[in-house]
Design brief:
The chain is α/β, with parallel strands linked by helices. The protein has 28 helices and 21 strands. The C terminus is likely disordered.
């Protein structure tokens, strides 16, 4: 983080070109500073042995263990026909479990001499299964003799650091490289203000780096981690606090609805009363809209909690105050759906200057890539003159040709599907920065909201409106119990017989071979080769129509269909003409068909937890209870199965988002995940370190309020510059 000349030294100069090349290519490490911030994943105690029973399959592992026995076998093979082939089998143990190591051919001589019973060593390799036993084939190893100068020097501490490693570079080689650069840690500039460090009893940065790489006790590791977590949390929160501070310096037009205008007329004709949650969140938004600097608010709500209604009321408030509001949706299907449901909710209030239009009415226009020429021309005119108060569209709204009379509010639906640049371009269309409301149906744990959306204020809708029905979810293990799958299709037929409809969701479309973009794709890696390709909409729909759902009206929906065809399919499904819709995840957000009560998700293990929760939210939207069946071939003990069991066990999206996050490990909270770079979070765990993040946010706000330019904190500025390389700087600025 704190890149100063000694830490900016390229590894090539310090470690030599060969090692530096592997570190750059496989671990993304380029400088001495990068290597110092490549922390051990865990530590082994020299006296203790690794728990061999817990090794993950197909992963590259490093273990400390003792040789139990070693046997050299000879055998005949194509290469050694006269029985001259050699295989060395070494069994290692941790006292309870055992693991087999195998070496072949000329590779047997060195380990045969060195791996004698009783010898302890570090072993590194990929875990596989042979004859139902765990084994490492041709592992690399490093003996732990405890004598001989070099070994004593390298393993002086009682704790052996094990680093995130690759097949090309074993953990102990990384450890040796770290030893070489460790003296430079003394020159690391501390980003934490002295008062903060002293107040919280944190060790200095050079000391933390020394203790994390060369701990003598477990207390050393704890000290180092506590300090390094603070660095990550604090520097990130300072970046976000500066962002918030800059926003408060911008001017925006306050938008206060008139007391008896469009919003009042809309509220008066709602056929139901708002939930307490909707009232509370609406008030937070109205308070923000009334201020003279831009609102930046994140509206989180469970699927079906009525976010769209809250957003619509905010849009109508802005129209009342003389401005315009734009709703940005990620897909055409969703934009059309929003347009349909909003005009239905508004009735004659959306019919300005039309026969039968209400007194306070405005125009609501739809603008997507497939809007026809005449309709587009009219929509652009209505926006430029201010005739249209509300516009709903996809990224087509961002094109230069689109001019607003007075854009006052931008509502972004499903934030994670929108590029930051796109949001920014739309925000740039106001005479002054418009207010911004971001909606997401993916529940985000509080800490992640503080970290990822730290520059947005957060409102949460966690109450479901009256009339929403519970959804029962079950895992269908198709491989272990094929009759469960047959029963699933029977259940679909029962729902249809009762007058309802069903969705069947598949991971892919099925015409990829014809897609020129995909034709040049690389073949799957060897470990994926034995996995069958994910089930496809076109194949599954054909099979169901011929087989288990024969006689029902089955249609398909996917992203590569022509927009008009997609819309026609959705209309037929919404009107009840279609019994079963076989679709990709295009139905994941916003599709609202209250009569659809059942959903079967094929290859459910290929979807993320949050995505499954989103999909499931499409059923049970009316008065009849919903049913969601998660079909998988994953074996019972597999992590994928545990994930599906978790989804089936709870309807609480916030609980699921925590599970999702714990399983996925945070990825990069600053959005680097999209660019394939390494994670910026090395020791901070967003879920576990909730307290550290919350405290760092408070400290950061105080530091920035006192000194927005950080003139008195050069170390912190350096750390910020390193964190906010250009890409991240833009990400945060436009977030």
């Amino acid at each position: 983080m704190d890149l100063v000349p000694a830490l900016q030294e390229p590894l090539k100069k310090v470690l030599g070109p060969a090692t530096a090349k592997v570190m750059a290519e496989h671990l993304g490490l380029h400088t001495v500073g990068d290597l110092l911030h490549h922390y051990p994943r865990r530590y082994e105690e020299r006296g203790q042995l690794t728990h061999l029973a817990d090794l993950p399959m197909d992963e590259h592992v490093t273990v400390v263990a003792q040789v139990a026995d070693a046997r050299l076998h000879t055998f005949a093979s194509a290469k050694a026909p006269r029985g001259k082939g050699q295989r060395l089998e070494v069994t290692i143990t941790d006292g309870s479990g055992r693991l087999q190591l195998v070496f072949f051919g000329a590779g047997v001589h060195k380990p045969h001499k060195e791996l004698l019973p009783g010898t302890r060593a570090l072993f590194a390799g990929k875990v596989s299964v042979f004859n139902r036993r765990l084994q490492l084939a041709h592992p690399a190893y490093e003996l732990l003799r405890g004598d001989g100068e070099e070994t004593v020097e390298t393993w002086a501490g009682a704790l052996i650091p094990l680093y995130p490693a690759t097949a090309k570079l074993e953990s102990w080689k990384i450890g040796k490289a770290v030893q070489t650069v460790l003296p430079s840690a003394q020159e690391a500039v501390d980003p934490l203000p002295e008062s903060l460090r002293a107040g919280r009893g944190l060790v200095s940065l050079p000391e933390a780096l020394l203790k994390i790489h060369r701990p003598h006790t477990k207390a050393d590791i704890a000290d180092a981690r506590a300090r390094l977590k603070w660095d990550e949390a604090f520097v990130l929160q300072v970046a976000l606090a500066r962002r918030r501070h800059a926003d408060t310096q911008l001017a925006a037009v306050p938008r206060v609805p008139r007391p008896d205008g469009l919003l009042t007329a809309f509220d008066d004709r709602l056929p139901f009363t708002l939930t307490d949650g909707q009232r509370k969140v609406s008030q937070e938004i109205f308070d923000d809209l009334a201020t003279a600097h831009p609102m930046h608010r994140l509206l989180q709500g469970e699927v079906g909690s009525g976010k769209t209604l809250v957003a619509l009321r905010a849009m109508l408030a802005v129209v009342d105050a003389g401005g315009q509001a734009a709703l940005l949706a990620p897909t055409e299907v969703l934009a059309q759906q929003h347009h349909r449901s909003i005009t239905e909710m508004m009735g004659d209030l959306a019919e300005k200057n039309m026969l039968g239009g209400a007194e306070h009415a405005t125009k609501v226009v739809l603008l997507t890539g497939s809007t026809g020429t005449a309709a587009r021309r009219q929509a652009l005119l209505d926006l430029a003159t201010g005739e249209a108060g509300v516009v709903i569209g996809t990224h087509a709204l961002i094109e230069d040709k689109v001019l607003f009379h007075d854009l006052g509010l931008v509502v972004v639906d499903e934030q994670h599907r929108f590029g930051v640049e796109q949001r920014d371009a739309l925000r740039g269309k106001g005479k002054q920065p418009p207010h911004l409301l971001v909606m997401t149906a993916t529940p985000i744990p509080r800490t992640v909201a503080m970290t990822v959306f730290g520059d947005l204020e957060t409102s949460v809708l966690d109450q479901l409106p009256a009339g929403r029905s519970p959804i029962a979810s079950h895992v269908v293990p198709a491989a272990d119990k094929p009759h469960f799958l047959a029963r699933a299709w029977e259940r679909v037929r029962e729902e249809v017989a009762a007058g309802h409809q069903a969705y069947v969701v598949c991971p892919r479309i099925g015409d990829e071979e014809d897609d020129p973009k995909k034709a040049g794709r690389k073949k799957p890696a060897a470990d994926e080769a034995d996995r069958r390709p994910p089930l496809a909409v076109l194949d599954v729909a054909a099979e169901l129509g011929r087989g288990p759902l024969k006689g029902l009206k089955v249609e398909v929906l996917h992203g590569r269909m022509h927009p008009d065809d997609k819309d026609a399919v959705m209309r037929r499904f919404a009107s009840g003409e279609t019994d079963v819709l076989v679709a990709t995840t295009v139905i994941e957000v916003g599709v609202n068909v209250p009569n659809a009560t059942a959903m079967v998700i094929m290859d459910a293990d290929r979807f993320g937890v949050s995505q499954l929760h989103q999909l499931r939210g499409r059923v049970g939207r009316g008065s009849a209870p919903g049913l969601c069946l998660l079909v998988t071939e994953a074996p019972e003990a597999a992590p994928a199965r545990q994930r599906l069991n978790a989804v089936a066990a709870t309807l609480d999206g916030f609980e699921l988002s925590r599970i999702d996050l714990e399983q996925r490990r945070e990825g990069d909270v600053l959005g680097q995940a999209q660019s394939g770079a390494r994670s910026s979070l090395r020791v901070l765990a967003v879920i576990e370190d909730e307290e550290v993040i919350a405290q760092a946010r408070e400290e950061a706000a105080a530091v920035v309020a006192a000194d927005p330019e950080l003139t008195g904190l050069p170390g912190l500025r350096t750390a910020l510059d390193a964190l906010l390389d250009e890409e991240r700087e833009q990400y945060l600025e436009k977030g």
